[in-house]
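ingest -> validate -> predict -> emit
validate: passed (alphabet ok, no gaps, 362 aa)
predict: started
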Amino acid sequence: MRHQPVDSSESLKTGSLEDIHPQCRMPNGYTGECKYLDKCKPLKEVSEKKVKTDNELLYLRESSCGTTSNYLYKVCCPPQSEWSKKLDLKPIPFPEIINYLAEPGSNGTSQKSSDDTKSTTVLRDGSNKETEECGVEVSGPKQDRDYGTADIDEYPWMALLEYRFGRIMCGGSLISPNFILTAAHCIETTHGKPAFARLAEYNMTSFPTDYVEVDGGATETITVSLIAVKWSEKHPMFDKNTYHHDIGLVKLAEDAKSSDFIRPICLPRYNFADQFDTNTNFITAGWGVHGSINNDIKMEAKLPYMPIPTCKRSISIPSLTNKQLCAGGVASYGPDSCSNIREPTVYTYVYEYLDWIDSVMV
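emit:
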């Protein structure tokens, strides 16, 4: 089945850029405008309450419609004509969050415990023993492009990580029903550890629901799966100064349900490093920054392989190792990371960490 996203953004109109706010879907199902939290009086008032109900916390989380390149929080705000009315705090229920909030003492960042027995064994090709399937998309033939918007059902293993107050700071890849592979610098941030993972996400401004056209012109809704994080772990040798061993794992509180939009990616079975040359291209996907613009829609880019010696000269970083490469792998660091696809970016070479990944997931 071929899925195409429906453009729900507001048409451009005369006025300053600050006056133009994309349309989005509020948690109660009504249409709102995606704007900074500080510019949305009703939600700002709720966010500033010292004591919030579970329903208010849930509504604020589901109101998130993206961040800026400076990580300023944006929410799906009711039209200003509705501000004098009482806010209808009846969000679309996410069972994962309700169960998470109901669990005594849960904070989404607990460490792995000895009684944590619910795990999935991942084979070296990334499949798990129950399904033995990974890296499979339902998309039809792909377009050959250097950079652009991904189809809504492409890269179904992509995940977004939520932190305090619903902030989106990092992405990752689903490698089993309950594990996400990410970077170590995403495990401990200025906003704490990841608390939730978003799966089946496409357009952050329409959170939690995307609207897509299927074969025949019909429209279907796809709701994001928001799952609490049980614990997260960074590589024990991670160095935040050199970004060596910049790899981490996020354990989900429950298994993600497989669908056309949620599927794991394979871990590399072989070491292909000797086969990489200047004709090798890699694909990167996600919601990274491009220039000064934070992408709200899932994007993809083709990145050519660059040998380590050339990469060292290009970005003046002498400390690269064979556990890193330029293009392909887990995004680590470089000139504005995803902001300039023409500049080399340093990535963590996942194959070199398979033993560590296996040891954490056992």
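Residues 54-62 form the longest helix (9 residues).
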